[in-house]
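Re: the request from the purification team.
They wanted to know what the chain is likely to look like in 3D before they choose a buffer screen. I agreed to run a prediction and write the result into the notebook, where they can find it.
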Amino acid sequence: MSDLVQVRKKAQVTLPQSVREELGIEEGDFLDIQVRSGEIVLKVKKLVDKDQTWFWTNRWQQGEKEAEKDIRAVRVNNFPDAQKAVAFLHKQAGKKSSKLNESVE
């Protein structure tokens, strides 16, 4: 895709609608601007509230991907209440713990 834009007063540039739509750029978004080998490179940046940054860590995102795969493969469990869910998790943790102990011995 190539679009021609004109630099206006105060060095303002309007991003074409086709570019905004393709990249999901909305009013208020931030763009990171870099100069590389004589070219201007723009990267769309979204701000995240500080108390939500944990969700965007690599570790959490990897867990989200694994959970999504499990859901698609119908590897899920349903529990009638939280106590049954916690009991199941303790049982699973015990299995993993005993496997770790066996491999160490």
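For the purification team: The mean pLDDT is 90.
Please add any questions underneath this entry.
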